[in-house]
Every structure is written in C-alpha cells, then in structure tokens.
Prior knowledge:
Layout: H1 2-10, E1 11-12, E2 22-27, H2 38-43, E3 48-53, H3 70-85, E4 89-95, H4 97-112, E5 120-123, H5 141-151, H6 153-159, H7 162-180, E6 194-199, H8 207-211, E7 221-226, H9 233-247
Parallel strand pairs: 2-3, 2-4, 4-5, 5-6, 6-7
Antiparallel strand pairs: 1-3
Helix pairs in contact: 1-3, 3-4, 5-6
Amino acid sequence: MHRDRSIAAWIRRYRPRPNASVRLVCFPHAGGSAVVFHPWAAAFHPDVEILAVQYPGRQDRLAEPRLEDLTELAKQVLPPLRAAVGDSRYALFGHSMGATLAFEVARRLEAESDAGPELLVASARRAPSRHRAVLVHQLGDADLTTHIAELSATNSRLMEDPRARAMILPTVRSDLRAIETYRCPPGLALRTPILTIIGDNDRWTTLEEAEAWARHTRGGFELRVLPGGHFYLDEQEAQVRQLVSARLGCDGA
C-alpha cells in the first residue's frame, strides 16, 4: 500500500491506458506541475499512455519540502517511475528544466538495466554540458517576476495576480536553483537516442546549445526547430505530438 501511495504521489495517470504499447513519462518545466500534461493524456495516440511527474512542493504536494538539487530529485523520482512503467516500453519527455532532469533519470535507468528508455525528448533546453553564467534564481522578486512573465503569455497573466505570484515565485526560485547549480559529469553519454526540440526564437536555448545534446548520446540524435520561443510548446503541441508519436512507432498523434 505504501508503494502505491508513493507512485501516486509522483506519477499522474490522467487517462489510464493499460493496453498501450508504450508509456511516455513527462517532466515539467521549472515552476511547472504534472497538470501541464493533462491535455496530452487524451490527445496522444491511443497506443501511448501519458505519465506525468509531479514534483514536491506544489499543488497537492504543496506541504512537502521543495527539492533544490537536481540529482536528488532524480534519485527520488526513480523508484516510483520504475514501478509505474513496469516491464512496458517507455520513453521520457522533458521541457526546459524537465529535459535535464529526464536526462539524469535516464542515465540512472541505464545503469540499472540493459533496457533503458527507448527515447529521450529534450525540449527547450540546452545540453547538460552547456552552462551560462546568469543565475536567474538569485534575482529579486520583481526581476524574477518579470523574467517569468516574459517567457510566455500564460505566465504573464498568472504573474499579474498577487496571490498566484506569491505561490509561484518560491517554487520557481527553488526549481531554478536546482537546474542552475546542476553540473553534468564530464563525457556522460546515454545509450538512449535523443530527440531535441527547440523554438526558433528561444533566447534561453540557442541552436548551438541544442546541437550539443548530440555529445550526450551514442544511440542517435535528431534536432528539430519549431516556430516560437521558450514555450513554443503552447502553440506547437500538435506538431510535437506527431513528432514524438512517429519516433515511438505510433501512427498519428
């Protein structure tokens, strides 16, 4: 029973598909939650079951301490994720911070077994080996609010609400601290193939930084550039579903 509660805390199945041929485990962006992927559960091809990761310190896990260390977050999500996918085929999708977290989870899964993920989709995130000197998590509340609002129209509307802003800022700051202090072990490359997707107007992930993901896999690399900024996914969701479904061997989206 305790094991089931642990899985339910970390992994959300908004539309269970027990007969699906593959599970796609989705990792949200900094400040995000599992509900971001709720629409995917119904929209994806029936052969794909969406499992969305819920980080501690938000929504129904608000009372739990937020984790500010990405490797610790990867360690904690690993057991419930492993239990949730079982012996089925599975792949990982991560957006922004979620992409690097998915990478850390993938390398641990590969270390445990010869059968790791079939695919890692790294969305809107520079390669783990590429770092920037800018530390957004150290900004004051006003500047951090501006930063969040600039990333997408949805964020901008949310940040106009004082109550929402008071809840969002601490979570975003903790997540940003986790991703901005993360350092990838030198020379780390997965067996898992990597599909990297970025927006053509994302100032937080350049084409060069995205191409550097190729150094982190021995299983094949592909880069796709779609119209949009850091949250290109808001407008290009259908195309992303098509891309991922095709790579997983499922027709349609």
